[in-house]
Amino acid sequence: MSGVTYGFTDETVVVTGGSSGIGRAIAIAFGRAGATVLNADLRREPKDVDATVSTHDVVSEAGGHGEYVETDVSEPDELAAVVEATREFGGVDVMVNNAGWFHRAPMFGVDVETFERIHGINASGAFFGSQTAAADMIERDAGGCVVNVGSISSTHAQANQVPYDSTKGAIRMITRGAALECAPHGIRVNAVAPGHIATEFGSGAAKKEAAVEAGELVKPIPLDRPGYPDDIADVSVFLASDAASYVTGEMVYVDGGWQVF
Known about the structure:
Elements: E1 12-16, H1 21-32, E2 36-41, H2 55-62, E3 65-70, H3 76-85, E4 94-97, H4 112-140, E5 144-149, H5 162-182, E6 187-194, H6 205-213, H7 229-240, E7 251-254
Parallel strand pairs: 1-2, 1-4, 2-3, 4-5, 5-6, 6-7
């Protein structure tokens, strides 16, 4: 099967949480398409065991232009600073709200601090990332795209994940509501919903691959493999491209068929 290529030359993309895992793959994919990519993350260096070069450097090597901006997405002012930094490159054209924190615990074992922290990173980060980027696009009368990273947990409850699942459910409705309000301004807002992805996020790549191979998931994956960060990156780039110009308010599941039964 031949690969699909997209062109983002002269466009500026912000990817939150782009140093590792899914965010890193998304940032590099936009870099390959020629974009200027700002990696907005608390951590500069990747956590992935097979990655040694910083994301912004790989983006530049791949054909785009990479920048790193230290960012805590739970702080709206820091998200605003990232969007302001894009003005050097013409302003933000694509905002990818990917940064997230995973926490597994029984409902009765979750304290207020943990609940507020996970919502501050996952849900608030997506909301204010969308709000700030869209406001910049509107001010410049430029149109643009927002891509939020949800999860199969956006609509499917999983054991011992109430705080995490609730943030991903929020992202689904942030996406739909923002799409409705932003459409008159030529701004599309969509989300990608990863399934069981082999990354260092959560249980770790090796454990996820082994669990799928051993059939240890609560239910099987019809395509019989875990997903990988590039699977999510490909769909994210599609959603931001002209190929998806009539798509907004959607959540696209990239889960190997996990949620269909």
